[in-house]
Amino acid sequence: MEYRTYEPCDDLSALIKCYWSLEGPAAERPERQTIVPDGCMEMIFHYGDAYRQHMDTGDSIIQPLCFVIGQLTRPLEIEPTGRTGIFSVRFLPHGFFPFTSVPLRTMENTAIPLEELFGPSGREFGQRVIAAGSTMERIRMTEQFLLQQLTDQVTIDRIVASTVGTIMTVNGTMSVAELSDRSKVSRRQLERRFASVIGLSPKQLSKTVRLQAALTMVLSGTSPNLTAVAHESEYFDQAHFAKDFKELTGVTPKEFYGNNVQLSSLFYGPE
Question: pTM score, two decimals?
Answer without folding.
Answer: 0.91
